[in-house]
Amino acid sequence: MSHGTPAHATVPARPGRTSIFAFDGMNHHILAMWTFISSEVFFFGALIGVFIVYRGSIGAGPAPGEVLDVLRTAIFTVFLLASSVTVGLAGARLHHGDQTGFKLWLVVTLVLGAIFLVGQVTEYAALYGEGLTLSHSLFFASFYLLTGFHGLHVFSGLIALAILTGLALAGDFRGGRDTALESIALYWHFVDVVWIVVFSVVYLWSLFG
Amino acid sequence: MAVQADPAIEVQPEELRRADRFYDWVTTVDHKRIGILYIITSFAFFLIGGLEALFIRLQLAFPNGRVLGPETFNQFFTMHGVTMIFFAIMPVLIGFGNYFVPLMIGARDMAFPRLNALSYWLFLFGGLLLYYSFVAGGAPDTGWFNYPPLNLRGFFSPGVGVDYWSIGLLVSGIGSILGAVNMIVTILALRTDGLTLTRLPLFVWMLFVTSLLIIWAFPPATAAIVMLLADRHLGSGFFNPAVGGDPILYQHLFWFLGHPEVYIMILPAFGIISEVIPVFSRKPIFGYPFVAGSTIAIGFLSMTVWAHHMFAVGMGPILNALFSAASMLIAVPTGVKIFNWIATMWGGTLRFNVPLLFAVGFIANFIAGGLTGVMVAVVPVDWQVTDTYFVVAHLHYVLFGGSMLGIFAGVYYWFPKMSGRMLSETLGKWHFWLTMAGFTLTFLPMHFLGLVGMPRRIYTYGPESGWGPINFVETVGALILTVSLLVFLWNIVRSARRGEPAGPDPWDAWTLEWATSSPPAPHNFDLVPPVRSRRPLWDLKHPDDPDWQRRH
Predict the structure, then answer these.
(1) CB atoms closer than 10 angstroms to residue B100
(2) Of B153, B471, B496, B536, which is most buried with the most CB atoms under 10 A?
(3) Interchain CB distance below 8 Å, B246 and A40
């Protein structure tokens, strides 16, 4: 009497009652990305908390409202948010079997994300040029910490997207399997959502003192 | 009658060249091998941390001791703490989790085997980075929690020790987070048919909640460490009071990890105990839903009590009161577990093999350690005993008397599965009793020492303090513990070579890991037994009286 279920790496979908806690339908990689994202929420939460704590510690230096260019950053924000749309479009094209459209939108996503980063880096350069460095005040230390780590996450996402693009150009996605794209896109959307919060807390709030 | 894996399926070349075998281990992505790597590496760090402790005890055995100078002493107690917490106890439990969670859920491996390997290597290299500090200019010497401004370069820590502490923990911390993501996906998505969450072995439940704690509690500490490095090397002033920075901010961020960390260290041990006690009492666990549910409660509450490590910094009465209340509250679900374990043993047919001895020792010591924990949750008591040996006693009762005994129970329970051989019962009993004697002699008197005012982390004391005799007794206890560990090591080494063959199910147990050979084949199971209850092997062995026909 040694009947049993052959061991396999995935639990097959069962007919009838399937509890949502069986996680049958959800791809492992997507589940892993959501789990990782929940961890990152606590990381950015801590950094945002630190920023809020030190927001008023401007030392002798300028107030945030005087020195942060909200409009300029808002424009670069639009580029980042657009890149989330385009990565979604890439996924849609892949589902429709449109390999060309898929690759095109991936490249556009890369470009838009890179533009955002360039905007960030040039903003840092300008601030540093005015002597507003990490050591200038606790406000700026926290500013660079928070926006800097966000920028690092954008950069990591760009690397992942670049790898995806390379694989796409090599024909790896011709079979239509999209797990890699879906999980990286999920990460990319998260990076966007974080930026919306950071932009609000750092830039928009500075308009009100 | 257990389902056996066909040994012929696993290809064993007669003579593997040594280099091939080494290469196999270095490149493995098999959860069982990675588990063994974690366990062995952790024990190596445990022995090093133990040596550090032994030297501390030798230095403190007599007044005006001259075994270690003050600077070296500071490095030793710092490294002892960091090593035991992050490189011994937590990873050995993760190692057991790695080995047994896939087996207990009927899976072939973890969800992401290569990520699993990465986590192990990050752990190892984090530890090596930390220990490199000894030869790079000095190990960190600021205490395992490494507070600013003591650890800032402009103040008292111009050397590199703090930097190695920082990057060692950053590297291994990332490994921990990745490993926890892996564990969560594995437990949620790879369970075999019929294994609903309410039928999950309690060890798996504990690893699940532990992994949630890891992914949520580590990140703020990661942020704190980065901020510390920025303060030390990039001129920022996050924690530097000279420029308006707040050292207490570091404490909040650090203890946000620090407190869940201790639950990360105890929950898997609770899981081991929850497996061992039913098997060796020949009774299912009493109140399974309460043990599982209280785990979730402990996990949640553990993230709300961190500032009870900061009662003495002046947070004010409201915060003190809130954290005090929450800390006392967390004793309730913990107590629930203890009642459930005792109720499991009550009326059971007790088989006092070594695993059960360690489980009972665990319960006794953990009750004591938990009680002193409730004591220090009372703010005025904490004001009196903080930074004294009373706290050292408390933490060692829960971490050594608790976690470590739980780990030993797990070793004696699961060694037969991992190696195919039984450990010696006689040597195991010697190990157990020497451990209980040595542990009690070392740490019980520390309660009293703390109450009469001996501060922790002092490198010596004068004879007029009167602390000499008790310290001497504690050092004798430490020597007994050293002997107990030698007995344990001898047991392992000897039994690995000449122990009695264990067979697939030497303890007549009930969870899925016992449904395959010892050690399991690389693919774990040829066929996974059907799961219709919490004790699938009981059902298989007792088709006339399966659990799923009882009111469990």
Answers:
(1) 28
(2) B536
(3) no
Can you tell me which residue has the tokens 């009465």? B317
Q: Please report, as a single letter, which amino acid is at residue A54.
A: Y
Asked if residues B299 and B230 have their Cβ atoms less than 8 Å apart, the reply is no
User: How many whole angstroms separate alpha carbon A189 and alpha carbon A183?
Assistant: 10
SS3 content of chain B, % helix, strand, coil (to 5): 70, 0, 30
Contacts of A2 in chain B (CB under 8 A): 3, 527
Interface-testing mutation among B181, B303, B516, B539, with chain A (most A C-beta atoms within 10 A): B181
DSSP string, B85-154: IIIIIHHHHHHHHHHHHHHHTT-SS-S-HHHHHHHHHHHHHHHHHHHHHHHHT----STTTT-TTTTSTT
Selection from B513, B516, B508 nearest residue B538 by Cα: B508
For residue B547, the distance in angstroms to the closest alpha carbon of chain A comes to: 17
CB A123 within 8 A of CB A133: no
- Of the residues A39, A57, A186, the best mutation for testing chain B's interface (the one with the most B CB atoms within 10 Å of its CB) is A39
Nearest residue to B294 (alpha-carbon basis) of B324, B337, B248? B337
Q: Is the ipTM of this complex over 0.90?
A: yes
Question: DSSP 3-state assignment of B220?
Answer: helix
Which helix (H) or strand (E) segment holds residue A6: the answer is strand A5-6
**B5: pLDDT strictly greater than 70:** no
Query: Mind giving me the DSSP string for chain A?
Result: ----EEP-SSPPPPSS---GGG--SS-HHHHHHHHHHHHHHHHHHHHHHHHHHHTT--TTS--HHHH--HHHHHHHHHHHHHHHHHHHHHHHHHHTT-HHHHHHHHHHHHHHHHHHHHHHHHHHHHHHHTT--TTT-HHHHHHHHHHHHHHHHHHHHHHHHHHHHHHHHTTTTTT---HHHHHHHHHHHHHHHHHHHHIIIIIIGGGG-
Q: How many CA atoms lie within 13 A of A108 on its CB side?
A: 18
Number of neighbours of residue B532 by Cβ within 10 angstroms: 16
The two structure tokens encoding residue B78: 């710092």
CB-CB under 8 Å, A5 with B527: yes
Residue of chain A whose alpha carbon sits nearest to that of B237: A138
Q: How far apart are CA B178 and CA B63, in angstroms?
A: 46
For residue B349, count other CB atoms closer than 10 A to its CB.
9
Chain B residue closest in CA terms to A139: B238
Which tokens is B65 given? 């001791």
Q: pTM of the predicted model, to two decimals? A: 0.94
Closest by Cβ to B528, choosing from A4, A14, A46? A4
Residues of B in contact with A1 (CB under 8 A): 1, 540, 543
Residue B440 confidence (pLDDT) above 70: yes
CA distance B531 to chain A (A): 9
What is the distance between the alpha carbons of residues A11 and B185, in angstroms, rounded to a whole number? 13
pLDDT (tens digit per residue) in B170-204:
999 999 999 999 999 999 999 999 999 999 999 99
Judge contact between B55 and B67, C-beta under 8 A. yes
pLDDT over threshold 70, residue A162: yes
Numbered residues of chain A with Cβ closer than 8 Å to any chain B Cβ: 1-12, 14, 19, 21-23, 26, 28, 31-32, 35-36, 38-40, 42-43, 45-47, 50, 53-54, 57, 59, 133-135, 138, 141-142, 145, 149
